[in-house]
């Protein structure tokens, strides 16, 4: 009788763990079907509005992590995608007041056109790598080379409230 109770307890524990694992996989799949927001090269003022909405969503989901996935493209300078991701994270953390450990950015590679994808997700959800991939065919990398120093300087020196 005692062995039967132990066996039933073990089975219940295993089934409960399997259900949690299946829910985690299901949550990741449903998140992958939609991004909270995504955008390409837009003005800083427009990007701030999108990041404001992202921060509001994170405030409404206090247990979520805010992921900023950045994709490199031929329409930006080398290093520009990463600089824009750092600027976006800094804005959400320093201007909108979201805790530093609740917002992260990740460079997810080259897809031909610059893209930022914003995605809040529960801490328990494992985010795929790359988030929007894998990509079947990726064009050759040919970054913009005109005025890159000026473009990167403008991104690094952007301030909240600026519209450029």
Question: Quick summary of this structure?
Answer:
The chain is 45% helix and 19% strand. The protein is α+β, with helices and mostly antiparallel strands and 164 residues long. The chain has 2 domains: 1-33; 36-156, 2-Layer Sandwich (60s Ribosomal Protein L30, Chain: A), CATH 3.30.1330.
Q: Which short descriptors sum up this protein?
A:
four-stranded mixed sheet, 4 strands, 4 helices, 60s Ribosomal Protein L30, Chain: A, 164 residues, single chain, 2 domains, alpha+beta
Structure description:
- The protein is an alpha+beta fold.
- The chain has two domains: 1-33; 36-156, 60s Ribosomal Protein L30, Chain: A.
- It has helices spanning 2-32, 44-60, 80-95, 148-156, and strands spanning 37-39, 64-73, 103-112, 115-122.
- The chain has a four-stranded mixed β-sheet, with helices on one face.
- The longest helix has 31 residues, at 2-32.
- It is globular and about 80 Å long.
- 20% of the residues are buried.
CATH architecture of the largest domain: 2-Layer Sandwich
Unreliably modeled segments: 14-29
Q: Total domains, how many?
A: 2
Mean pLDDT: 81
Query: Strand arrangement, largest sheet?
Result: 1-4-2-3
Main beta-sheet strand count, sense and barrel state: 4 strands, mixed
How would you summarize the topology of this molecule?
Elements: H1 2-32, E1 37-39, H2 44-60, E2 64-73, H3 80-95, E3 103-112, E4 115-122, H4 148-156
Parallel strand pairs: 2-3
Antiparallel strand pairs: 1-4, 2-4
């Amino acid at each position: 009788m005692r062995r039967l109770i132990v066996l039933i307890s073990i089975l219940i524990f295993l089934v409960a763990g399997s259900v949690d694992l299946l829910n985690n996989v299901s949550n990741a799949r449903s998140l992958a079907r939609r991004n909270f927001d995504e955008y390409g090269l837009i003005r800083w003022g427009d990007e701030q509005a999108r990041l404001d909405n992202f921060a509001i969503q994170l405030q409404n989901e206090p247990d979520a992590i805010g992921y900023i996935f950045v994709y490199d493209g031929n329409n930006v300078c080398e290093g520009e995608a990463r600089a824009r991701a750092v600027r976006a994270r800094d804005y959400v953390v320093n201007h909108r007041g979201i805790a530093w450990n609740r917002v992260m950015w990740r460079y997810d590679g080259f897809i031909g056109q610059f893209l930022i994808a914003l995605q809040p997700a529960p801490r328990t959800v494992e985010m795929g790598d790359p988030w929007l991939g894998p990509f079947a065919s990726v064009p050759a990398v040919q970054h913009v080379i005109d005025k890159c120093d000026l473009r990167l300087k403008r991104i690094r020196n952007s301030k909240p409230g600026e519209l450029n």
